[in-house]
Amino acid sequence: MKSKTHIQTTNSTSCNGYTSESSSSSPPPSPRRRSGVSHFRRRVHSTTHLHSRRCTTPGWVSFRRCLRYCLFLPLLYVCGLILCVCPFSAILRPRPLPGSVYRSHEFFQNLWPDIYSDNSSSIKLSSVWRYRRRLQEQKPCPSVQTINARMRKYLETSEPNGYLIVEANGGLNQQRSSICNAVAVAGLLDAVLVIPRFEFHSVWRDPSKFGDIFDEEHFITALEGYVKVVRELPELLLEKYDYNVSNISTLRVQAWAPIKYYLKEVYPVLLQQGVVHIAPFANRLAMNIPPHIQYFRCLTNYNALKFSLPISTLAKKLVDRMVERSSASSGKYVSVHLRFEEDMVAFSCCAYDGGETEIFEMDSIREKGWRRKFKRKEHVVGMMLRGMGFDNNTSIYLASGKIYQAERNLAPLLKMFPLLQTKEALATPDELAPFKEYSSRLAALDYIVCLYSEVFVTTQGGNFPHFLMGHRRFIYDGHAKTIKPDKRKLVVLLHNTSLSWKSFKDEMGMMLKECDRESMMESTIRKSRRKTSIYTYPFPECSCLRQQSQNSILDQSIEYRERNHIVLTA
Hints:
Blueprint: H1 2-13, H2 34-55, H3 58-85, H4 88-92, H5 104-117, H6 144-151, E1 163-168, H7 172-189, E2 192-194, E3 197-198, H8 210-213, H9 216-222, E4 229-230, H10 235-240, E5 250-251, H11 259-273, E6 275-278, H12 291-304, H13 309-324, E7 334-337, H14 342-347, H15 355-368, H16 381-388, E8 396-399, H17 406-409, H18 411-416, E9 420-421, H19 423-426, H20 429-432, H21 439-451, E10 455-458, H22 463-475, E11 482-483, H23 487-495, H24 501-519, H25 558-563, H26 565-568
Parallel strand pairs: 1-2, 1-3, 1-6, 2-4, 5-6, 7-8, 7-10, 8-9, 10-11
């Protein structure tokens, strides 16, 4: 019994590696190394256990839940806002912007009963324009001596330095711009101008020459003393280039080139070779040029460029017939420039109401036509004019090329204005036959008839309305007498097919007043360094020419002027 007890005591005391009795027969054991590792594991285990206990505490669980809600709830709130602001279907299929879908026909169908039954008082053509403009006192035009004296500071010699040949490209009024610029450059360089050549364009497809559209003799005479003009190069120069102008090296000039460019780049070539050939020449001269050079442009556009005899003769007849058919309005009529030819419809990239047939035809034209896109305002001219107060007794001249599906597309306009006329309706087939295949000559007829209308309506930009507005300002004391609608406002109005006729009329009345005000204003750009076109805003640069050029566009007799006095001086 004692021995057992002794053994138990010894074992118990040797747990820490020490013994209580030195007389023991066995040596004391060495310290156990595993005891340290076990102690570490116990610490790690206790730490992990403590962490798990901490993670399972109610406070920690609440924190994690709050964190999830803080991330999820804002996302849910944003999605809810998007769904509330716009329907989910609008995200997948957004609503079309105003003007992107052709709705004019719907608008017209909805309002036609109100338009037809509208018996309110109509506007008189003699009282359309209420604003008047007082022109400043006109200064006399600069004399040849004055211009020559100013030119001497640019040039080395006072004798002609050579010959200038230009290629006028584009349609009628782009060619007109090129001719005016050519005269100005010839005056600047003191060069002899060869009658400008017209470039054949694959779009316009008009092979007309200068003399087919403009009066060559009058052009040469009107510029005499300012710029010398000849019909062709002298024999010596022609022989040098084998009687072929295309053998003369072509000089490429930058667009909107300033005066310094011509004096530095073109003038030395002119002195060296004796002839300069520039092509193309559209927009090759800056608008902001010295006044005595700008005068050459004014003199050319408003005096020297007179349409050829065949064009002016037929144009007189068309104007006479429009006056005769406008007896209800004392011989006054409205002219409308409408662009709805096949190419313009195709490249507007708009979908109209012609169905599958129209889509197929437009795709075919796009494949073989221009690589361009055109912006086009919807066909709402009739509704706009009726809304402004023009009744169905108003005579309207429609200036346009061949209208795409004319019978269908002009039906609404004819409903509202039965007295609609075109050059095809006013002239006989025999009278129009010489002009049929020449787009520029047909455009010249439209230009003259529109020029002498009491009201001119333009549905979009381009050279034709810009030149015409400037010419009308020139002959009507600074007032263009032009309706140029606010397209953005008009598109928004037409997009609302539920708009009432009364509301539409109120908007159109305000638009007419704005057009009246803008027709007599000068461009605000004139106050800056960049000048606007004298072809659209002729004053004050061209004001000195008004008296001597009042009737230069048509070679009118005294009887013709007296008979149409109401049109020409309104």
